[in-house]
Amino acid sequence: MQPAIISLALLVSAGFLTAAPLENESEAHIRAILAAQQAAWNRADVASFMEGYEKSAELTFSGTSGVTRGWQNVMERYRKRYPDADAMGKLEFSEIEVRLVGAEAALVLGRFHLARTAKAGGDASGHFSLVFRKTPAGWRIIHDHTS
Questions:
Q1: How many domains does the chain have?
Q2: Helix or strand or coil: residue 68?
Q3: Which of 95, 89, 93, 96 is nearest to 116 (CA)?
Q4: Using an 8 Å Cβ cutoff, are 26 and 139 in contact?
Q5: Is the CB of residue 114 less than 8 Å from the CB of residue 91?
Q6: Where is 27: in which H helix or E strand?
Q7: Where are the alpha helices (DSSP H) in 43-92?
Q8: DSSP 104
Q9: Domain residues for 42?
Q10: pLDDT tens across 100-144, in order?
Q11: The domain spanning residue 6 has which CATH number?
């Protein structure tokens, strides 16, 4: 009986040992997407910024002006609200927390700061929460709540 218990203990502990690297790898991928989005925004490249989102009709964006559904509609919302580099300003993400809620889902919390001239709308800052899903294309945002 003891060899069976020892074998079970080894299998269980091996599972725990492999979970941490997978979590770290997933978190690193998610953080890389956010860094790429920040860089794209700061180049005034909305199309590249949108690569962080799942290209799906089910994508949702929730903000102070309501809910926008669908990747194309979110893209159009960004292009309308931020028509040029001045309006986009310079974006900085901070206080990012990544919480995996399963092998294929994560919740990300953070702050954003948008530095712009007064003529371009002035600075803006606030909090965001993102839901990421692991897709065949990699981790992608499926829900964005920014306020």
A1: 1
A2: strand
A3: 89
A4: yes
A5: yes
A6: helix 2-42
A7: 46-49, 71-81, 85-88
A8: T
A9: 2-146
A10: 999 999 999 999 999 999 999 999 999 999 999 999 999 999 999
A11: 3.10.450.50
